[in-house]
Amino acid sequence: MKKVLLPLAALALALAAFRIPFSSPNSAPVAEPISLADPNTTEEVPQDNKLIIYQLMTRLFGNKATTNKHYGTLAENGVGKFNDITDTALLAIKKLGASHVWFTGVIEHATMTDYTKHGIALDDADVVKGRAGSPYAIKDYYDVAPDLAVNVPNRMAEFEALVKRTHSHGLKVIIDFIPNHVARTYKSDAKPAGVVDLGEKDDKTKAFAPNNNFYYLPGQAFVVPKEYNPLGLGAGPREDHKFQEMPAKATGNDVFSAAPSVDDWFETIKLNYGVDYQNNRQLHLTPVPDTWKKMRDILVFWANKNVDGFRCDMAEMVPVEFWTWVIPEVKKVKPDLIFLGEAYNPKEYKRYLTEGKFDFLYDKVGLYDGLRRLMHGEGNTDDITKVWSQESRGFGSRMLRFLENHDEQRIASKDFAGDPRAAIPAMTVSATLGSGPVMLYFGQEVGEPAHGSEGFSSEDGRTTIFDYWGVPEHQKWMNGGKFDGGRLSAEQKQLRDFYSRLLNLTATSDAIRRGRFYELQDANNLGQQYDQRHVYSYLRFTDKQKLLIVANFSRDKTSKPTLVISKEAMQAAGLNPDKVYTYTDLLNNAPATQGLTLTLAPQSAYVFEINLKQ
């Protein structure tokens, strides 16, 4: 990792300790009326949905091996196990501020590792991406990945023990649900008695039939993409540039061709939810399609394993009518389950939340993309305004905010910001802009830069999900299983300390969890020292707590504005313009000040609690 020394001013202002204010866990949002014509706020009454999700790639999280050989095998590069996520690890995650853990890659998927001695069929390398395989090419919906078990025949019991262990620390469990596609080698060996496997009763003579589980290309055989070289110079299991599939099935990313390209999701096959894609997407939803029932039963199976929620992969590639039906069906079994949808079409957000019954959706195309531009030294704070005022207006409390996940590049990578400190203002905004969930990806908190070409994953700024690998900067925090940060640099400890303080403040602040929002850009845009392109400020408030949040995204410029809170903003927040207030920075533990002439260091953030001067 590139050594980064924080300037003393930035260190003092952005990474010091903060005090937690007293707040009532049951206090309601402020009752002061807000004009719907006011362009600086919205009519939304925030809901307390402040889940703090820690996402970890289960295969990588506990891996202590440091070989990191290109296309290395499990034996060479190692693999993390369920049992590596110990009580000590979970306690550290809890202390970081998390309320939920998303265990990514739990369900069994196609892999090049040989588990035939355990009765698991060997996959064909020609239709597997990476030595370890994609966790989104599901091979058996009713089983867990054998990679993750110390004792493979006991793998489900080891997962169940992890769920119990996680709950014992007051953390809830989220796993993936992959509804749109499965591996080309899909076959459930672990399905409960009486379950009919996917495709087992399909009429393969028909391209589409409402109760078929897959789409077919009658008379055509599947063709492996000619450019695909599974292991580079090495040879994978059964690799011969052929894969027997007759008739060919449609590919997972809606490609209805027997010869998908190497850039397609060619290792997967599309599931049929009653949509006839080749006939103007005609819907055949009555009676309830067979695939719907099978997916419901799979969700109920995992709900009965005591998981607390599902992150639903590519939710928009499945018809919204399915979600409308299945989510209430599964919640009959466990009413407090949460459904979090991976979504990328802002025009469909409201429909998937209301009609589709999702609890939460990704805020990727809006807030993530806007913050990424700011962190990359491009864009401006208008992108943030667009998110709350237009894109997620009225349902901001149901949008998941994040800066990293398994699909995105690492902040510290040369492909993104190149500097983990760029996350200080951006993560503060992600966590505090609204009252919805916020997520952290393992290694983000110590500035993992994702250096190296792991195999199928190239040098692309991402931590691989396809290969066996150790995550070097995360391993320094893991410290051989002590999970105490013993091998972190001073700069990394400071960074992790920032994340811990921010997330714990987010978890305990009444105003952040349930408060209304009021933007202050208009009130300050004429200020000589207020760099509106890079400085962003807003209020969050309830009748119990009033906060002023300020972020400076500039990489190199210190701003020294005298911040203005307009009369309208003060009245909206229940503050008296004729009174004198003090401002205490809870994020950075600075002494209370009476004025708002601020010194905003580059890449810094501040959370001021506003109190009446005594």
From TrEMBL:
Chain coiled-coil ranges: none
Keywords attached to this entry: Signal
Recorded superkingdom: Bacteria
GO biological process: oligosaccharide catabolic process
UniProt entry tagged with the keyword Signal: yes
InterPro entries to which the protein is assigned, alphabetical: GH, GH13_cat_dom, Glyco_hydro_b
Glycosyl hydrolase family 13 catalytic domain location: 55-484
A GO MF label: alpha-amylase activity
Signal peptide limits: 1-28
UniProt protein name: Alpha-amylase
